[in-house]
Amino acid sequence: NFLLVDPAKDVDPGELAAEAELLHTDAGHSHRLIEIPDEALGARVERFFRRIGWKVDPLVLMAYRGESERVGESVQVDEVSREQLIPFREETERAQPWATSEEVVREVVAAGEISARAGNSRFFAVQVDGRPVAAAQLNSDGRIGEVDDVATLPAFRRRGYASAIVLRAVEEALASGHDLVFLVAEDKDRPKELYARLGFEAMGRTWSLLRTPALVAKD
Hints:
By secondary structure, the protein is of the alpha+beta class. Helix content is 37%, strand content 30%. The chain is built from six helices and nine strands; from the N terminus they run βαβαββααβββαβαβ. The protein has helices spanning 13-27, 39-51, 82-94, 102-118, 161-175, 191-197; strands at 3-4, 32-36, 55-64, 78-80, 122-128, 131-140, 144-152, 180-186, 200-211. The chain has a nine-stranded mixed β-sheet with strand order 1-2-9-3-8-7-6-5-4, with helices on both faces. The longest helix is centred in the middle third of the chain and has 17 residues, at 102-118. It starts with a strand and ends in an 8-residue tail after the last strand.
């Protein structure tokens, strides 16, 4: 459901926007989404897309280099099943601006099963009274691990839960022989600073360009 740009090609931003319009229209999509896996190319087209009203999100790729702050060491992190996390994921997704109905929330959470299977994912959580309140998943191709979907319920933030979960996922990846562990963070958001303290270092950036129809207010 997005247009992926080949960074080896010479790209005109106007033509790129027009191509996204054509392809998404033919596919019956209401949104327009372009992914650019190249830092320099994304920087070149950023201004144009901002001017025509698209949401532009630079994402930073961060690799684990070690020497992390040992935060949250007293926090117990459990490995759990994806099924155990479904109520937690539904709760976190409901807070998103696009979550206009319960059906949308269920569809997004269900779609996560596809990526989880493709990524051979393992799941980690901090639980309070048997209920997950913070969680993340570790995706793997056998050599490279990705820490993904890190989230904490608002009432349980600032307790070191996310830090403990990220470090547990990293430790599991390294213990099972992965050569590289990385994650993706929003370049202009605070979690990037947290990940740097945990031993992650920026490697480069990718770009996500999004245009959506006006959101419908929730009931």
